[in-house]
Specification:
With about 325 residues, the protein is mainly alpha-helical. The protein has one domain (about 45-315). It is about 55% helix and about 0% strand. The protein has helices spanning about 5-25, 30-35, 45-55, 55-70, 75-80, 100-125, 135-150, 160-170, 170-185, 190-215, 230-245, 285-290, 310-315. The mean pLDDT is about 90.
Length: about 325
């Protein structure tokens, strides 16, 4: 009798385990195997949860379109047209000059954002159409000029290469991350909480990967400028704190000792508060940043006509 190879043996064991699990699932009710831990009297989604969760669709649309176009040269209108609900396509977005490593990362992020939009729309209602978004190189150049306090020459172009693109991405998952942390204390439904936790987990992972990518290149000078990657992150974070107007909730790759973990490190691979907990922002703070106006009542920046949803639209009316 022939002796099975190691890989064949592992494959056989896997089949046996899968088969036994299947038999077990047949013999026992699912709720005994996988109890939810949820009271039968609990409410899945409170009415008050809906606007808060739907607000985050603005950032998910922003990330999905940016990542899809950068890696594939097309966006949601091709990949998942049912999600845009007739909303206008983004301005100025195009395919980026990414190396294979960066492209693989961003391509996966892109598909994750599509899933996030689908999950939000399926669990808390259809939401709203895709808002008009400005993802042009011209807009990013203006943003980076404001971060440094003078005009960069040549103008910063996020589509130029992988490093520029990752620097431009530095802002996106983190905005969603702090928004979800801020929303958490206001929602009540168990289904809504699970949705938020799932979204927060992945957005946090995306932010960590982008920050690690940049941290590995922290001392590299960004061509053709005289500033390092670390300096770029610090200037962008300072700008976002200034626009949000609610203290230091955003930090670059290096910080003073008093802002480092337990006041013992200047490295800042993950941005967090004095207890190393994730920071949080309100919808108003986020809008001040993404509008690039420092005012949640005045639209601009990434959303020339304003973000969508009840929260954002009501703030524009005030």
């Amino acid at each position: 009798m022939a002796i099975l190879s190691t890989s064949a043996s592992y494959f056989l064991i896997l089949i046996i385990l899968m088969s036994s699990n299947k038999l077990l699932c047949i013999s026992l009710p699912h709720n005994l195997l996988c109890p939810t831990g949820i009271s039968k009297y609990a409410i899945p989604v409170f009415r008050e949860d809906i606007d808060l969760m739907q607000f985050s669709e603005n950032l998910e649309f922003l990330e999905a379109e940016y990542y899809l176009w950068a890696t594939h040269g097309y966006g949601l209108d091709v990949v998942a047209p049912e999600l845009v609900m007739g909303g206008p396509p983004p301005i100025g977005v195009r395919k980026a000059n990414l190396d294979p490593f960066a492209k693989n990362i961003i391509s996966e992020f892109a598909m994750q954002e599509v899933g996030h939009l689908r999950a939000l729309k399926s669990k808390v209602g259809p939401g709203f159409p895709r808002p008009l978004m400005d993802l042009s190189a011209k807009h990013f150049a203006k943003l980076f000029d404001e971060a440094f306090g003078y005009k960069l020459e040549p103008p910063f172009d996020p589509y130029r290469d992988s490093l520029n693109f990752m620097l431009s991405c530095y802002a996106l998952p983190y905005a969603a991350l702090v928004g979800y942390v801020g929303t958490n204390s206001h929602i009540k439904g168990y289904e809504t909480k699970r949705l938020l936790a799932g979204l927060l987990g992945v957005e946090s992972g995306q932010d960590a990967i982008i920050r690690m990518y940049l941290y590995e290149r922290a001392g590299k000078v960004v061509y053709p400028y005289k500033h390092t990657v670390a300096e770029f992150t610090i200037h962008i974070s300072i700008l976002r704190n200034r626009l949000a107007m609610c203290g230091t909730k955003d930090e670059g790759l290096f910080v003073p000792w008093q802002l480092g973990a337990e006041n013992r490190t200047r490295t800042n691979i993950l941005s967090a508060d004095c207890d190393s907990l994730a920071q949080w922002r309100s919808p108003a703070e986020i809008l001040r940043i993404v509008y690039n106006t420092g005012n949640e009542h005045i639209c601009g920046g990434f959303f020339p006509h304003g973000a969508n949803g009840n929260i954002a639209r009501n703030l524009l009316k005030l």
